[in-house]
């Protein structure tokens, strides 16, 4: 499994239609539990039913997250991104759209190469 998605239930369904498996997360605790299971193989589920098909870091190359899910992960996400390990993290807007005040990927790229239009 190369891709996996965490976020809104509607988007999990949408990504499933194009062949990308995922799991809906509804709270910060749920997001952290599922994220740690995928990235660290963590087995403490805290009452959350995790599917058997959930990938591990060795099989998941790209983890797609909604911006809201990324916010819920906080330091766990930052530490993982700084580690340089797989899966790579890609944040996308959730079903409600872009979160106000967050930089988009395009904004970050423009800032990095010095283009301001």
Summarize the structure.
The chain is of the alpha/beta class.
CATH fold description: Rossmann fold
Count of individual domains: 1
Q: What does the average pLDDT come to?
A: 80
Q: Note the gap between the termini.
A: 39 Å
**What order do the helices and strands follow?**
EHEHEHHEH
CATH level 1 name: Alpha Beta
Task: Give the % helix.
Answer: 40-55%
Number of helices: 5
Strand arrangement within the widest β-sheet reads 2-1-3-4
Looking at the chains present, what oligomeric state does this protein adopt? single chain
Total beta-strand segments: 4
CATH architecture: 3-Layer(aba) Sandwich
Which stretches are low in confidence, meaning pLDDT under 50 for 5 or more residues running? none
Class based on secondary structure composition and strand pairing? alpha/beta
Q: How does the overall form come out from the CA principal axes?
A: globular
Please provide a written account of the structure.
The protein is of the alpha/beta class and 117 residues long. It has one domain: 3-Layer(aba) Sandwich (Rossmann fold). Helices cover 40% and strands 15% of the residues. Strands 2-1-3-4 form a 4-stranded parallel beta sheet, with helices on both faces. Strand 1, helix 1 and strand 2 form a beta-alpha-beta unit. The protein is globular. 24% of the residues are buried. The mean pLDDT is 80.
